[in-house]
Amino acid sequence: MNASIIDPLQGDFPEVIEEYLEHGCMKCIAFNRRGTLLAAGCNDGSCVIWDFETRGIAKILHDDECSSPITSICWSKYGHRILVSAADKSLILWDVMSGKKITRIVLQQTPLQARLHPGSSTPSLCLACPLSCAPMIVDLNTGDTTLLKVSVSETCNGPTPPSRNKCSDGITSFTPTAACFNKYGTLVYVGNSKGEILVIDYKNGDVHAVVPISGGSVIKNIVFSRNGQYLLTNSNDRIIRIYENLLPLKDEVRALDDLSGNHNDLNNIENLKAVGSKCLTLFREFQDSITKVHWKAPCFSGDGEWVVGGSASKGEHKIYIWDRAGHLVKILEGPKEALIDLAWHPVHPIVVSVSLNGLVYIWAKDYTENWSAFAPDFKELEENEEYVEREDEFDLIPETEKVKGPDVDEDEEVDIVTVEKDATFSDSDMSQEELCYLPSTPSRDVPEQQEKCVESSSKLLDSNNTGSPLSEEAGPNGHMMNHASSPLEDDAGRMKRKRKPSEKVLELQAEKVKKPSKSSKSEKPKSKSLADQDNVVL
After folding, report:
1. Tens of pLDDT, residues 234-261
2. Residue 332 phi/psi, 5° resolution?
3. What is the dihedral of CA 468, 473, 475, 477, to 10 degrees?
4. What's the half-sphere exposure (Cβ side, CA atoms, 13 Å) at 416?
């Protein structure tokens, strides 16, 4: 590999950390097919779905039966389903729109990775790669599992799994094996611990081809590009290899049968290797020849033009980006936190990485301001220039435009309903049932003023219920007031000074004390008249 760094202006790839997402402790991530939603599996067993355009949380999926860390997460083709694998040996299938659990299956081994069948909008099959067991096909409807072969014996006539030590539960122990579906899910490509890629028809379990890798190191990761034309492997020898897929994207099984028929004169293993040489051919190798680092979560860009891999070294967050020709174009250096997972956006030059602390970092291109993009006739000047305007430059209809006839047919109807097909999604049938966005469900906040009113009214009711020995009443503003001792107040709440009673009023009051008390009916109007006279100003 050429270790020289080429001019970064030649490619459209991320350069700096744009922002980060934080919610609990996230462990793994996956984009939906359009890149509008980002799903992240958390340490508490929940799955959070982010709206990647607004960078807000769209939905949280949580099962009370699962509280173990999520080990992998996968979207269905049209985004209606999400499959997660957890450290408690479970597989959970979710309905994204409703947020309800469809099914939960418990395996005998912890699945490190699980992938839904890519050829169905509502898949019922998934490919699981357990910790100490061969990869298996899991029927999500019934829970049935079918183990796939991981090796081919050179002495036997047929493919057989190698003999290994038995686990305590009786299951044969294997080194963790990587596996993935091809583009349309007709075949499974398995990378084993002997440094071989097995091409398997999962429906009958037959091994159709074997592709040996130079060095024979354990294959840790295996993944196809989006268009299905390239296959990536990550081995223990610290080399990322890219293979070109020579099989047709459709009818691959039939093509494999035709290739096998041409090599019937060879024994089984030689026949499989001969077929394998017609299936995959080595295209490129990527490595850091200086530091010899192990790689974490390598993958392709959305268009397959770039290859990205994270450094598996502890205490560093480095992301290496190569072009498909083998040149190292960029090394992204993040915080001093180990990298555990990463994903490239399906459409835009954006890489999302997960740190050991559970933060998700979003790497994007560092765009510079270009004002000519907003006005095509805008021209940047190095220094001020004297400009003489035309006579009709600022007229509403310049004379130059009056001469020209209209080039646009104003009567032509503009179609604003039909959606043009995006070339990025060549495999898309533009199905209307594809889920690209989730509706927001905002929660209503209680107004602060309303909270104060509720609190004050509750306090007032409590004070009234307790009762007071004093003859007090609540004022109009909630204040307690004693009419016998408090000063008078007008309607506006202003204080009024008391007026001194006149001599005539004092004489009337003295006569009232001397006269015997009469009925209450006669006293009421009299007291009212006294009050009226008291308010008279002399």
Report:
1. 999 999 999 999 999 888 889 998 888 7
2. -90, 125
3. 30
4. 3
Residue that has been written with the tokens 């599996």 in this structure: 41
Q: What 3-state DSSP class applies to 403?
A: helix
Angle between helices 520-534 and 503-514 (to 10 degrees): 160
Closest CA to 144 of 121, 168, 126, 162: 126
Rounded to a whole number of angstroms, the CA Rg of the chain reads 39
- 209, 245 contact by CB (below 8 A): no
Confidence of residue 6 (pLDDT cuts 50, 70, 90): very low
Strand partners, 290: none
- For 436, the token pair is 């690209």
Residue 437 tokens read as 């966005």
Please give the order of strands across the beta sheet that includes 47-51: 26-31, 37-42, 47-51, 56-61
∠ at Cα 70 (69, 71), nearest 5°? 110
Residue 500 DSSP symbol: P
How many angstroms separate the CA atoms of 29 and 40, rounded? Answer: 4
Question: Environment class of residue 23 by beta-carbon count within 10 Å: exposed (0-12), middle (13-18) or buried (19+)?
Answer: middle
Nearest to 331 by CA among 318, 317, 313, 350: 318
- Give the three-class secondary structure for 114: strand
For 4, 55, 331, 405, the CA distances from 340, given in Å and listed in that order, are 27, 21, 17, 62
pLDDT tens-digit map of 378-399:
777 788 888 888 887 777 776 5
Sheet (strand 206-212) strand order = 178-181, 188-191, 196-201, 206-212
pLDDT in tens, 49-61: 999 999 999 999 9
CB 13 within 8 A of CB 349: yes
Q: Which residues in 301-400 belong to E strands, given as ranges? A: 306-311, 318-323, 328-333, 339-344, 351-355, 360-364
CB 339 within 8 A of CB 294: no
pTM as predicted: 0.72
List, in sequence order, every residue forming a beta bridge with 265; answer none if it has no partner.
none
Strand 47-51 versus strand 318-323 pairing type: unpaired
Q: By C-alpha distance, which of 437, 487, 366 is closest to 97?
A: 437
Residues 178 and 192: their CA atoms lie apart, in Å, by 7
Q: How is 416-483 classified by DSSP, letter by letter?
A: -SPPPPPTT-TT----TT--------PPPPPPHHHHHHHHHHHHHHHHHHH--SS--EE-TTS-EE-T
Continuous H helices in 229-380: 252-261, 268-277
Using an 8 Å Cβ cutoff, are 39 and 32 in contact? Answer: yes
3 state DSSP class of 25: coil
Which run of H or E residues covers position 223? strand 219-224
Which residue from 166, 324, 317, 186 is spatially nearest to 242, judged by alpha carbons?
A: 324
Query: How far apart are the C-alpha atoms of 487 and 489, rounded to whole Å?
Result: 7
